[in-house]
Amino acid sequence: MRTHNEKMSIYHGMASTLATNASSSYIPLFAMTILSATNYQVGLISSIPPLITLLMTVPAAIILNKAVEQRKLVAFSVLASRLVFLLILFITYVPSSVTSWVLLGLIALMSIPNTMVNMGWQSFIGNLIEEQRRAQFFSDRNRLLTVSGLVSTLIIGIVMRDATESVIAYQLLFACTFLFGVAEMIFLLHHEEPIRVIRLEKKRAMDWTIFKDHAYVRFLFVALCFNFGWQMAWGLFNIYNVRYAEATIFWVSMFNVGNMLAQIFSFPLWRKWSERYGNMRVFVWVAFGMSTAPLLTALSTNFYYLTWMYALSGIFVSGTVLILFNLLLENSPNETRTYCITSYNVLLAIVAFIAPQIGIWLLEAFNMDVAMNMSTLVRFTAALGFLYVYMKRRK
Fold first, then answer.
1. Which long-range contacts (CB under 8 A, 24 or more apart) does 326-330 make?
2. Buried b / exposed e across 22-47, counting CB within 10 Å, b at 16+?
3. For residues 256, 257, 259 and 263, what is the CA-based torsion angle, rounded to 10 degrees?
4. What pLDDT is recorded for position 381?
5. DSSP state, 194?
6. Which residues belong to CATH 1.20.1250.20 in the chain?
7. Best CA proximity match to 376, nearest among 284, 296, 286
């Protein structure tokens, strides 16, 4: 029997998934087909949110720590974020010479409340779900959200399969994003949250001794290299799908459907293997698998082939999502864990800002094959790094 807060969390998660699926995958397509964005601008679509996250992390943490009722702060931050999509609706009425830059400005604006949402929700929901129920609840919740995301993406692809170059189609998607955002806010406000006691004791802003822990530093370096190789291809995949393969809304949706289906079926396998063999040993195989995606994707522009490639990638993406954070916890000493996680997230935000720009620079300086192959090379090198960390641990 689910508690009231568990039900509200699932409803909120479904609304959030629907809002995200109606926008995130289609913004790069909208930018390229309707706004004629350059490759550099497409790369910035991936780079701007982590940059804003980096700048907003400390202010957001201060505001959240002072909030008596976090649910209201998170709920209205969600609404503020989704309101930006109402502005994106009218972006085509702006002079064509600046439309792409206006879109990037709105993405930056949207990322400010999104930082509050992402940080606040983790803190907020952790206090509402009983510790002994968390593992089972979040497992069930993630499965339901993935299924709802799969269904919504499939519907969008089928309904709008011939509307890739229609401004109205994108306006409908962005309007739906706002409406689902309103639903997110409502479900968040319906959570039952106890009044928080605000503690005034001061803590150190940073504990630099964490960088004397060799196990943590080794993991940190390899994990950041892996994320660099992973994220430098984000903009490249969008450009390859639209400009090289000439994918429509339908096929972009099918790529995502294949990816999500693979994740749904592979999550239990990675969980089983990580419990049996250990997180680090299993993640070595995940990292090697992730390294193949850019190289294999660039071999063909056939839509059916690309759908299978996205499905193959989804198998290893699920392993990354499931295991990488657990590895961070394993390699962070208990007494300094908060500082270790904070440092990791800050450095990860820097990597997430720089990596897509490096990918676009390689594309412009050389070609798509070189850029994709460099992403594969960095990922493969990081996989060797994880193997080294694993072997070092066994000694």
1. 326/274, 326/279, 327/219, 327/223, 327/279, 327/280, 327/283, 328/219, 328/223, 330/279, 330/280
2. bbebbbbbbbbbbbebebebbbbbbb
3. 130
4. 97
5. P
6. 4-189, 208-394
7. 296
What is the dotted CATH code of the domain comprising 4-189? Answer: 1.20.1250.20
Name the CATH superfamily housing domain 208-394: MFS general substrate transporter like domains (1.20.1250.20)
**DSSP tag of 163:** -
Average pLDDT over residues 293-317: 96
Q: What is the Cα 96 distance to its own chain's centre?
A: 30
Residue 283 near residue 386 (C-beta atoms within 8 A):
yes
Residue identified by tokens 């997180």 is 279
pLDDT, position 77: 94
Rounded to a whole number of angstroms, the CA Rg of the chain reads: 21
C-alpha separations of 1 from 6, 133, 143, 231 in Å: 10, 11, 17, 40
Distance of CA 150 to the CA centre of its chain: 16
Token pair of 292, please?
A: 């193949």
The two three-digit tokens of residue 24, written as one number = 């995130």
- Cα separation, 138 vs 153, in Å, equals 22
The answer to whether 247 and 241 are in contact (CB under 8 A) is yes
Decide: 306 and 241 in contact? Cβ < 8 Å: yes
Residue 200 has pLDDT above 70, yes or no: no
- pLDDT tens digit string along 128-170? 777 667 656 766 787 788 889 889 999 999 988 888 899 999 9
Structure confidence by residue, pLDDT tens digits, 169-195: 999 999 999 999 999 999 999 988 776
| pTM score of the predicted model | 0.86
Q: Identify the sign of the CA torsion 336, 337, 339, 343.
A: positive
